[in-house]
């Protein structure tokens, strides 16, 4: 029994993506009953976890801060796939992209950051990170969120949406901001995004764990592609059940976006929590804010391109309560990041804001 358990722990990231593709082919033209719906949901969740697991292997091979970038991009590919598949099959999908992206921002900036701070400071008086790099990431996330999610509420275009030309500008601005940050993170000021000591000095090594071989990294890269294909297809099959499930328990339709973001960012949250527990808070910040940035900077342009063939309006503008939560999150994040160190108190504040977001998503 132990041997079987050890084998499962070691090889599940390899097996699950293959199972996902096989299941996708087997049930593509089959009407899903309750059993198949449950099976697809389980395999979909497992495939998402496996995809990020393989992204982590590739990320470890290339090292920080490139590793966090690989993880963020992989997660965003999954997120875009889920959004587009749901938008093509759902009836009320005008706000789905907005709800998912906003949920991703709240989950990363409050849920993941709060949990990481709590874990990082649990065994120490404070946990440390580089305020320069983290501050640059926060500034970019704030600009992206304001340009793409807040401005549509206040333009003269009827409804909380951009006109075609405004949407093109927002998409281009998002790509430019994201590209500028990636250049800063990986080339111009790479040392700003490395883990730091208690005195703020960068730690430019990965001696805490041996990097995988090139062969292992290439295998993980291939399995990552397989997993992403399975996620896209299985999400297409499962999308009607997700919407029906949210409606059945009486939650607002906008909660579908929360479900997507939670599913996609769960592995990212686990990776950030593990890094924080190892006293590598900067890595946790890179993962959290990098995912928030990619969720906006890559998702919005992708959705803008997809809107060419998608029917119906695209509502990106946030509501009043969502804008209040976003502003409060940015203010609290600034106060957390500026000192370059934080305690469990700051982690608790972010987690309370995350709880407020979840509650208001259920009871708007």
TrEMBL record:
Residues 35-186, 220-362 form the Sodium/calcium exchanger membrane region domain. It comes from Leifsonia poae. The gene is chaA. The chain crosses the membrane at residues 7-28, 34-54, 66-88, 100-121, 133-154, 166-184, 217-235, 247-266, 287-310, 316-338, 347-363. GO terms for cellular component: plasma membrane. One of its GO terms (molecular function) is potassium:proton antiporter activity. This is Ionic transporter y4hA. Keywords: Membrane, Transmembrane, Transmembrane helix. It is found in: Membrane. It comes from the Bacteria.
């Amino acid at each position: 029994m132990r041997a079987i358990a050890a084998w499962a722990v070691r090889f599940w990231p390899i097996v699950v993506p293959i199972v996902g593709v096989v299941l996708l082919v087997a049930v593509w033209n089959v009407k899903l009953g309750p059993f198949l719906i449950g099976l697809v949901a389980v395999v979909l969740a497992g495939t998402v976890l496996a995809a990020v697991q393989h992204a982590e292997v590739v990320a470890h091979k290339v090292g920080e801060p490139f590793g966090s970038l690989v993880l963020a991009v992989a997660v965003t590919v999954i997120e875009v796939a889920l959004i587009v598949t749901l938008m093509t099959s759902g009836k009320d999908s005008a706000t789905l992209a907005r709800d998912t992206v906003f949920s991703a921002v709240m989950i990363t900036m409050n849920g993941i950051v709060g949990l990481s701070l709590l874990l990082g400071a649990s065994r120490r008086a404070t946990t440390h990170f580089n305020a320069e790099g983290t501050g640059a990431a926060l500034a970019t996330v704030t600009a992206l969120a304001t340009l793409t999610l807040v401005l549509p509420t206040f333009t003269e275009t009827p409804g909380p949406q951009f006109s075609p030309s405004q949407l093109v500008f927002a998409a281009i601005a998002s790509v430019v901001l994201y590209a500028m940050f990636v250049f800063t993170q990986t080339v111009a000021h790479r040392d700003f995004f490395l883990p730091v000591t208690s005195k703020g000095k960068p730690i430019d090594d990965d001696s805490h764990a041996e990097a995988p071989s090139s062969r292992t990294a290439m295998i993980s890269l291939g399995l990552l592609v397989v997993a992403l294909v399975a996620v896209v297809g299985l999400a297409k099959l499962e999308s009607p059940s997700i919407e029906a499930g949210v409606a059945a328990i009486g939650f607002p339709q906008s909660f579908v976006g929360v479900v997507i973001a939670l599913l996609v960012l769960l592995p990212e949250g686990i990776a950030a929590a593990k890094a924080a527990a190892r006293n590598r808070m900067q890595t946790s910040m890179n993962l959290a804010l990098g995912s928030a940035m990619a969720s906006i900077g890559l998702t919005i342009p992708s959705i803008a391109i997809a809107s060419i063939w998608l029917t119906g309006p695209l509502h990106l503008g946030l509501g009043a309560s969502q804008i209040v939560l976003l502003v409060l999150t940015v203010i609290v994040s600034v106060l957390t990041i500026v000192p370059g160190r934080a305690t469990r108190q700051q982690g608790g504040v972010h987690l309370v804001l995350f709880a407020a977001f979840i509650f208001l998503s259920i009871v708007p």
